[in-house]
């Protein structure tokens, strides 16, 4: 149960090794009430490292194998994550940032990104919504992106996968009204994580802790869309309204 200050007792992170997901767990842990974490992720040394560190800090830590390209197994994976106890917060954090140029040469790269970022994320989100609806409470947190808001020549493959997820997320938020379950659609700009390692930071770049703090601050209350940093809400509003001829001249 999430207390009046917005601190949850239990969290499931799909993409449990993600840097933003890890920062969010840390944010909840330092709020002092977090007891139980489920990390759904591909088996890796990083997953082992994170789960053993958290096991020393929390009452219960569980890992569940989750490969977003294995679409046939998502239902089974989500049942393993969700069936046995209440979960206060479910975070959909698994994602890939494909190289747009490579995707143009090898469309299979775009297809895999769509599978991970959109198809698997949508399936996981719908399974989680169903479980939380039956439970009667909980918050779904969806890691979308500002890239969902307007396609750019340099990044439209990733942007389109996030646009699909963003649309499911906002539609589901409406559908969940009155159920006791709320949904936070999070649109970060450029976040300095291993996903963006080696790339030149875009304007308004931020870090995983700032994203985690913004999520924690918006956990209570009705479903909403948030931008991180918040200023991006207005920047994106202007960019969306901008004529194509002007938009094209901006640095890509
Ligand atoms: N960084 C940014 O600038 C930024 C901006 C806006 C939105 N976001 C979104 O925020 C979310 C978290 O990103 P991050 O920055 O924290 O990046 P990250 O540290 O690279 O995390 C990405 C996560 O996705 C998982 N993943 C990738 N492919 C997978 C697959 N086939 N099956 C299961 N899991 C898979 C990775 O697991 P493995 O450890 O197994 O690889 C990892 O847990 C993503 O959805 C991303 O699109 C990021």
Features:
252 residues; binds NADP nicotinamide-adenine-dinucleotide phosphate; 7 strands; 7-stranded parallel sheet; 44% helix; alpha/beta
Question: How are the SSEs ordered, and which strands pair?
Answer:
Elements: E1 10-14, H1 19-30, E2 36-41, H2 45-55, E3 60-65, H3 74-82, E4 89-92, H4 100-105, H5 107-135, E5 138-143, H6 156-175, E6 181-188, H7 208-217, E7 224-228, H8 232-241, H9 244-247
Parallel strand pairs: 1-2, 1-4, 2-3, 4-5, 5-6, 6-7
Helix pairs in contact: 1-7, 3-5, 5-6
Bound molecules: NADP nicotinamide-adenine-dinucleotide phosphate.
Task: Please outline what is shown here.
By secondary structure, the protein is an alpha/beta fold. The chain has helices spanning 19-30, 45-55, 74-82, 100-105, 107-135, 156-175, 208-217, 232-241, 244-247, and strands spanning 10-14, 36-41, 60-65, 89-92, 138-143, 181-188, 224-228. It has a seven-stranded parallel beta sheet, with helices on both faces.
Mean pLDDT: 95
- What percent strand? 15-25%
- Distance between termini? 43 Å
Which overall shape is indicated by the principal axes computed on the Cα atoms?
Answer: globular
Helix content: 40-55%
